[in-house]
Amino acid sequence: MDIQERVREVQRRLARAAEAAGRAPAEITLCAATKTQDCAAVRAAVAAGISVCGENRVQELAAHLEEGAYAGAEVHFIGRLQTNKVNKVVGRAALIHSVDSLRLLQTVESQAARLGVRQDILLEINIGREDSKGGIDPGRTEEMARAAAGMEHIRLRGLMAIPPISAVPGGSRHFFAEMYQLFVDIRTKMSDNQYIDCLSMGMSGDFEDAIAEGATLVRVGTALFGPRPPVRTAQP
Ligand SMILES: *Cc1c(COP(=O)(O)O)cnc(C)c1O
Predict the structure, then answer these.
(1) Measured between alpha carbons, how far is 4 from 176 in angstroms, rounded to an integer?
(2) Quick one: pLDDT at residue 236?
(3) Which run of H or of E encompasses 157?
(4) Which of ligand 1's atoms lies nearest the C-alpha of 224?
(5) Does the pLDDT value for residue 39 go beyond 80?
(6) Is 224 in the pocket of ligand 1 (CB under 6 A)?
(7) Radius of gyration of the chain, Cα coordinates, nearest whole angstrom
(8) Which of 65, 88, 95, 101 could form a disulfide with 76 if both were Cys (CB 3.0 to 4.6 A apart)?
(9) Which is nearest to 84 in space by CA: 65, 66, 108?
(10) Phi, psi of 110 (to 5 degrees)
(11) In this prediction, what percent of the chain has a pLDDT beyond 70?
(12) Average pLDDT of 65-84?
């Protein structure tokens, strides 16, 4: 299958899942997770109908931007973000999905203020409460949402999660349901909530379950681009 066929196939799966849940397919954004993909692959995905790309790595974001690979598509930042790289992402990514600490939130706020922009963000929630993963403890969601809402150069758009890898089909579904509850909860509690419209969850293996539980954005890599090369680790 080439990229065009894969994009169409994922769009079909997305539409089927939405309809099965009684939702309009247009309510759900397909974000292509472009990590490890070169500019040609990103360009081909955009030409095939992808309108949002999600980058994991600051370096790849910079390279793809420099080459004009997005060709009019929106770019989001979905990877782990270190505070010392915030200045390479703020003002470039239309949405940062992975804000997972107060310190990172404050750094994004400072950089956005310096640039005179308002940065859209999601709070990343560690919904499986895994020690190995980034993300805010679910119990601190409201506190962090209030902190974000109080910052002049930040616009809180919603929540993101990467649930634990499940060995069985449907195994992530209860995490997605919990995320939806948190999302509805902050939308209800925040007074200035008209921009809280994004619940980012679901990847190649489980995005239908995420849509069934209320995702408004799914981040899909492998199902669009094929398997990624193994990650090279630095030599000791
Ligand atoms: C890689 C990645 C994805 C996509 O994963 P696939 O299983 O390849 O679809 C989604 N979200 C994040 C944060 C990722 O790093």
Answers:
(1) 29
(2) 46
(3) strand 154-161
(4) 9
(5) yes
(6) no
(7) 17
(8) 95
(9) 108
(10) -60, -45
(11) 97
(12) 97
CA 174 to centroid of ligand 1, rounded, Å:
19
SS3 226: coil
What contacts 24+ positions apart, CB below 8 Å, involve 51-60? 52/76, 52/217, 54/78, 54/97, 54/219, 55/79, 55/93, 56/80, 58/85, 58/88, 58/89, 60/34, 60/35, 60/36
Torsion of CA 156, 50, 59, 76, to 10 degrees: 0
Condensed to tens digits (0 to 9), the pLDDT of residues 138-170 reads 999 999 999 999 999 999 999 999 999 988 999
Q: What value does the mean pLDDT take over residues 8-22? A: 98
Let me know how many helices (H) and strands (E) the chain has, helices first: 8, 8
Q: How far is the CA of 221 from the centre of ligand 1 (A)?
A: 5
CB 222 near ligand 1, within 6 Å: yes
Which residue among 6, 56, 99, 231 has the greatest number of ligand 1 atoms within 8 angstroms of its CB, and so is best to mutate? 56
- Of 35, 37, 54, 38, the C-alpha closest to 218 is 54
Q: How confident is the model at residue 87 (pLDDT cuts 50, 70, 90)?
A: very high
- Inter-residue contact 174 to 161 (CB < 8 Å): no
pLDDT of 1? 79
**Paired sense of beta strands 217-220 and 119-125, if any:** unpaired
